[in-house]
User: Fold this.
Amino acid sequence: MLKGAEAVLWAGFESLAQPVLVLRGETSDLLTEQGLQEMQKRNVLARGLTFSGVGHAPTLRSEDQVEAVAAFLLEEQAG
Assistant:
């Protein structure tokens, strides 16, 4: 059953037609670097951002994290 559910999730992700920012904590045990790479492989509009020294999920409490997300949003708004 999990394989079927996983296939549905991947199909949904692959069908996203707008840029997506995938946030990952460097020490996350849920979203690994390989998982992020797979996401970017499956959807060319996915951009990955890994925050150093952070687990799952990044809480965007530091200024540099907020600025990185804001830059992505502003870039997409201008695009």
The chain is about 50% helix and 15% strand. Strands lie at 20-25, 46-51. The mean pLDDT is 94.
